[in-house]
């Protein structure tokens, strides 16, 4: 599925850049924008990612025409098996027909072509209506996308997920008196306070949960629970980088990426069910059909799910950059952050990055490059928000030098 993200449009024209410098950091949150100093625990499995569910293991409850996710998991499995059996049965029957009988079937279909055409058209129309009535526009980036869930339904889903996460990490949650916790609250509050134009950011009740763990991990639930593992702090070198990391997570919530991803997965599942029946009907033997089905699933992952996931990550980076710009952070540190992550992944003993085309996330270098393209606009936005001028020394130069040194260190041993 081609997924076209709109180019980042910095919203300064309509933004109330409320953060005229010097930025005032409010540690006394208003009732609506409070970062809840919760002492709750949390876990996650992804580095710098939201807990966006995969199509296979996330349970949700739907809106209007969408099927409840828990029910959908069962229905999907039954429907997929049914479509395979149905397609295969029809093929076997067709193969067992004599030439005369096959001709009779074709003649019968041709005689009833208007009925067949009407049924087919009604199906296509139903699909178009479903898509048309569930399309929404993302805030900020103004991208059209399919959403089949209401906010309330998503909340019910995520509440369950949240309880499970808490159960896992409850013994490792750091208290609100912890220094890391204090820093994170300060940074998150500054971002929220200085992006007053983003309604959801203000309406959302945010809860910060810091987990004492060496794991380098940070993520957010769509209902506003931000989880940060203390291990991630090793990769964060400045407050601006920390702000960018948090902003990326906040952006996932603002853009409602989780609901979008679940909805899209469900839509793709429905198409797969239909295609499986056709595949098992038209492929002449069971053996070839099994191989084709496995190949087909891999293609769906590589061509649809993974690029789609990467597009959402890129969008969260872009919007996150705007959030930190309006909060008067050094936006250049966003690029530094990903370049440093890239360098770290190349260190001896590290596993390195998996190829981007096999990953749910863009690789670190590409994220840095994309941010580099957007940084001039982000600096402009910063200026419009009357932030202090950035230091002349660009922190990206230092990383570029480190990269050159790393290359130089590798080249002699390679020759
Ligand atoms: Zn992410």
UniProtKB/TrEMBL annotation:
<dbReference type="GO" id="GO:0006515">
    <property type="term" value="P:protein quality control for misfolded or incompletely synthesized proteins"/>
</dbReference>
<keyword id="KW-0482">Metalloprotease</keyword>
<dbReference type="Pfam" id="PF01435">
    <property type="entry name" value="Peptidase_M48"/>
</dbReference>
<dbReference type="GO" id="GO:0005743">
    <property type="term" value="C:mitochondrial inner membrane"/>
</dbReference>
<keyword id="KW-0479">Metal-binding</keyword>
<dbReference type="GO" id="GO:0046872">
    <property type="term" value="F:metal ion binding"/>
</dbReference>
<protein>
    <recommendedName>
        <fullName>Metalloendopeptidase OMA1, mitochondrial</fullName>
    </recommendedName>
</protein>
<dbReference type="InterPro" id="IPR001915">
    <property type="entry name" value="Peptidase_M48"/>
</dbReference>
<feature type="transmembrane region" description="Helical">
    <location>
        <begin position="271"/>
        <end position="296"/>
    </location>
</feature>
<keyword id="KW-1133">Transmembrane helix</keyword>
<keyword id="KW-0472">Membrane</keyword>
<dbReference type="GO" id="GO:0034982">
    <property type="term" value="P:mitochondrial protein processing"/>
</dbReference>
<feature type="transmembrane region" description="Helical">
    <location>
        <begin position="114"/>
        <end position="135"/>
    </location>
</feature>
<feature type="domain" description="Peptidase M48">
    <location>
        <begin position="199"/>
        <end position="374"/>
    </location>
</feature>
<dbReference type="GO" id="GO:0004222">
    <property type="term" value="F:metalloendopeptidase activity"/>
</dbReference>
<dbReference type="InterPro" id="IPR051156">
    <property type="entry name" value="Mito/Outer_Membr_Metalloprot"/>
</dbReference>
<keyword id="KW-0862">Zinc</keyword>
<comment type="similarity">
    <text>Belongs to the peptidase M48 family.</text>
</comment>
<keyword id="KW-0812">Transmembrane</keyword>
<keyword id="KW-0645">Protease</keyword>
<keyword id="KW-0378">Hydrolase</keyword>
């Amino acid at each position: 599925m081609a997924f076209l993200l709109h180019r980042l449009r910095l919203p300064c024209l309509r933004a109330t850049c409320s953060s005229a410098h010097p930025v005032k950091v409010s540690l006394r949150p208003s009732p609506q924008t409070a970062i809840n100093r919760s002492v709750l625990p949390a876990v996650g499995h992804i580095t710098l990612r939201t807990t966006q569910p995969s199509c296979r293991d996330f349970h949700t409850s739907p809106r209007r025409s969408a099927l409840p996710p828990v029910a959908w998991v069962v229905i999907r499995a039954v429907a997929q098996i049914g479509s395979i059996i149905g397609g295969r049965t029809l093929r076997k029957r067709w193969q067992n027909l004599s030439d005369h009988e096959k001709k009779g079937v074709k003649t019968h279909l041709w005689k009833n072509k208007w009925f067949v055409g009407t049924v087919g058209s009604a199906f296509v129309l139903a699909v178009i209506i479903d898509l048309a009535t569930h399309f929404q526009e993302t805030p900020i980036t103004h991208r059209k996308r399919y959403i089949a869930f209401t906010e309330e339904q998503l909340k019910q889903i995520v509440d369950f997920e949240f309880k499970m996460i808490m159960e896992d990490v409850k013994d490792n949650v750091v208290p609100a008196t912890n220094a890391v916790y204090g820093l994170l609250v300060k940074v998150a509050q500054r971002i929220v306070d200085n992006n007053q134009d983003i309604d959801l950011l203000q309406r959302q009740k945010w809860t910060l949960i810091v987990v004492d763990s060496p794991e380098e991990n940070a993520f957010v639930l769509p209902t506003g629970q931000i989880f940060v593992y203390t291990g991630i702090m090793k990769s964060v070198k400045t407050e601006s980088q920390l702000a960018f990391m948090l902003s990326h997570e906040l952006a996932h919530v603002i853009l409602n990426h989780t609901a979008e991803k679940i909805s899209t997965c469900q839509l793709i599942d429905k198409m797969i069910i239909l295609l499986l029946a056709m595949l098992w009907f038209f492929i002449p033997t069971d053996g070839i059909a099994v191989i084709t089905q496995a190949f087909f699933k891999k293609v769906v992952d590589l061509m649809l799910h993974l690029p789609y996931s990467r597009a959402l990550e890129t969008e969260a980076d872009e919007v996150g950059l705007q959030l930190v710009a309006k909060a008067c952070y050094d936006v250049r540190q966003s690029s530094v952050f990903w370049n440093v992550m890239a360098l770290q992944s190349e260190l001896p003993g590290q596993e390195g990055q998996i190829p981007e085309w096999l990953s749910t996330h863009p690789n670190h270098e590409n994220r840095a490059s994309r941010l580099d393209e957007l940084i001039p606009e982000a600096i402009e936005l910063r200026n419009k928000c009357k932030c202090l001028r950035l230091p002349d020394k660009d922190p990206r130069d230092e990383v570029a030098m480190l990269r050159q040194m790393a290359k130089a260190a590798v080249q002699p041993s390679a020759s």
